[in-house]
């Protein structure tokens, strides 16, 4: 189960180059249900995603390089390219009124931001994603000060929908 919140970002955090970075290319064979292929650095995957915005099923299967490029030729829409920076969140904050059953385990939670900086034609789009171990924690999470709009429930910001976007 993938449980994540998404935010737009208008100002990048300082010292971005000091964080681990992955080069990602992905394309969609289908958008309902979502069937995606992804190249992340030198690894290749086929992913199936169920329905949902905040929480949904996700299954990843490994591919080899030849299979990835063969399937990419069959993909619909735009191929999405982006840099993903992985930024640990030091002392994440939560709205404690929403966290009834998890107060004891909050101190042990390790969260990180997956900051996606999109390449053209999607640039200057930047999306921050934070994954959570459960939905209650996701809903109680307080965004970092450099996050902009919460777009978790806006399907337009799903990569599968971005892949179908037309550019003039």
Describe this structure in words.
The structure is a single chain. With about 170 residues, the chain is mainly beta. It has a single domain, classed as Hypothetical Protein Pfu-838710-001, CATH 2.40.320. About 10% of the residues lie in helices and about 40% in strands. The protein has 3 helices and 9 strands; from the N terminus they run ββββββαβββαα. The chain has a 9-stranded antiparallel beta sheet. Strand 8 and strand 9 form a beta hairpin. The chain is globular, with a radius of gyration of 16 Å. It starts with a strand and ends in a 6-residue tail after the last helix.
Helical fraction equals: 10-25%
Classify the beta-strand content into a percent band: 35-45%
Number of helices in the DSSP assignment: 3
**Structural class given helices, strands, pairing?**
mainly beta
Strand order of the largest sheet: 5-1-9-8-7-2-3-4-6
The CATH architecture term is: Beta Barrel
Q: Briefly note the CATH topology name.
A: Hypothetical Protein Pfu-838710-001
Radius of gyration: 16 Å
Head-to-tail CA distance between termini: 36 Å
Task: List unreliable stretches of 5+ residues.
Answer: none
CATH superfamily membership: Hypothetical Protein Pfu-838710-001
Q: Report the major sheet.
A: 9 strands, antiparallel
- CATH class division: Mainly Beta
Protein topology:
Elements: E1 2-8, E2 21-31, E3 34-40, E4 43-49, E5 55-56, E6 58-63, H1 65-72, E7 76-88, E8 112-118, E9 126-131, H2 135-140, H3 159-162
Descriptive labels:
single chain, 168 residues, Hypothetical Protein Pfu-838710-001, 9 strands, 11% helix, globular
């Amino acid at each position: 189960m993938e449980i994540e919140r998404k935010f737009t970002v208008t100002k990048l955090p300082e010292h971005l180059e000091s964080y681990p970075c992955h080069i990602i290319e992905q394309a969609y064979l289908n958008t309902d249900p979502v069937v995606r292929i992804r190249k992340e650095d030198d690894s290749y995957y086929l992913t199936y995603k169920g329905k949902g915005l905040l929480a949904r099923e996700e299954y990843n299967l490994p591919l080899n390089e030849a299979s990835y490029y063969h399937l990419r030729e069959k993909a619909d829409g735009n191929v999405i390219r982006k840099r993903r920076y992985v930024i640990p969140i030091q002392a994440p904050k939560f709205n404690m009124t929403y966290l009834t059953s998890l107060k004891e385990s909050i101190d042990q939670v390790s969260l990180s931001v997956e900051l996606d900086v999109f390449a053209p034609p999607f640039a200057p789009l930047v999306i921050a994603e934070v994954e959570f171990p459960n939905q209650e924690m996701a809903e109680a999470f307080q965004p970092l000060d450099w996050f902009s709009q919460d777009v978790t429930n806006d399907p337009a910001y799903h990569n599968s929908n971005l892949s179908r976007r037309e550019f003039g």
